[in-house]
Write a structure and sequence with these properties.
Domain HTH tetR-type: 8-68
Order of helices and strands: HHHHHHHHHH
Organism: Frankia torreyi
GO molecular function: DNA-binding transcription factor activity; transcription cis-regulatory region binding
CATH topology of the largest domain: Tetracycline Repressor, domain 2
Distance between the termini: 73 Å
Protein name: Transcriptional regulator, TetR family
Radius of gyration: 20 Å
Structural class: mainly alpha
CATH superfamily of the largest domain: Tetracycline Repressor, domain 2
DNA-binding region: 31-50
Helix content: over 70%
CATH class of the largest domain: Mainly Alpha
Length: 207
């Protein structure tokens, strides 16, 4: 039986074991008994950290969402303009989630078993709200520096998040018909035009 160094290690052992069990079942079903067997821990250890299987599944989903948000935030930290920050965010969303093993994790952590967990809808909504807040901050910066003259930060952040979500779902669930870079280019072109920003493409009409 595994002997964790501290309570945090014990919690991580359980969460990592839960993911392995979900992966093995294809996200269809997993039991606390299976998870504890995989972790090499006792029932008492489980209930020291989680009130139920649902709370464990939500913790797994939340941990991955926080990691994604942290990576995206880091990717825009050095952007010198709002336009660059928004392009990095779009690239980050579509590249991070399309690459293995992150793509596989995203599918497992939004699988039937996880979606059945009580509180999943609220947890997912919290993640969406955090993403929209980050996008709105970028758009406000663009309004201030003139790069996004047509932007309504809050409303447009919701719309951009919806467009990204749709593009991401297609990448995750359907056979890819284009590379993530091509999808990012298409989304960025649409978003920049909607915000009144230059697309950066050569002009083809009258100047």
């Amino acid at each position: 039986m595994a002997v964790p160094d501290d309570q945090d290690d014990e919690r991580e052992l359980i969460m990592d074991a839960a993911y392995r069990c979900l992966l093995a079942s294809g996200g269809v079903s997993v039991s606390i008994t299976d998870i504890l067997h995989a972790a090499g821990l006792s029932t008492r250890a489980f209930y020291r950290h989680f009130a139920s299987k649902d709370s464990l599944l939500l913790a797994l989903f939340r941990r991955d969402c926080e990691r994604v948000t942290a990576e995206l935030t880091a990717s825009i930290a050095t952007a010198t303009t709002a336009r660059e920050a928004l392009r990095r965010w779009i690239d980050g969303v579509l590249h991070l989630m399309s690459a293995e093993p992150r793509r596989r994790r995203a599918l497992i952590l939004s699988s039937e078993e996880t979606r059945r967990a009580r509180g999943f809808a609220a947890e997912r909504e919290r993640f969406q709200t955090d993403q929209e807040a980050a996008l709105a901050a970028i758009l406000r910066r663009g309004v201030e520096d003139g790069s996004f003259p047509w932007a309504d930060a809050r409303a447009d952040a919701e719309q951009i998040q919806a467009v990204l979500g749709r593009a991401l779902d297609r990448q995750l669930l359907c056979p890819p018909v284009e590379r993530p870079t091509e999808t990012a280019d298409r989304v960025a072109d649409f978003v920049f035009r909607a915000l009144g920003a230059s697309t950066g493409r050569p002009a083809t009409g009258v100047s």
